[in-house]
# Entry
Amino acid sequence: MTREMTSFVVRFVREVSEEQGARWRGLIQHVQSGTEQSFANFPQAVQFMQGHVVEQTVGALGDERQMSEKNPFADLTGEMTKLWGEWGPRVAEMWGQAAQQMMEQSAAFRSQVDQAVGSTLKTWGLPTGADQDAILTHLDQLGKQIEVLTARVEALESSQQKNGGK
# Structure
């Protein structure tokens, strides 16, 4: 029995920006050849893997005529390879849709948790959401006013010291 292996390394990177929020991007590498491709959605990664697997399968088949003479199932293998080429992108698309649904469900779950936390904080009389933002804004304004007052006090102290403490 002959065994051939193909391996891939997939890296996911979460990027966060104020304009677009959080999003995932990735990089996939075919270990045997060292080729890499970045991707913005998982179906692109699956297509990359599919291309390498089909290429390796076709390479392993060699000349179909020689294979037909040696192996009566060679035609079947060729047909299976063609089917994989046709169905692979559809499977990749289905995986992508499933991943998208998981992301949407994750966002919905987070929203539910945020609502539950907000409700609990409100029950306990603690500030939530907009209240926290307002408090932070007021604290920032108070900090600036304290800086101005501190500068004025220091100026008055310095003035008194120059006038001999009078």
Summary: Helices lie at 42-61, 64-70, 74-123, 129-162.
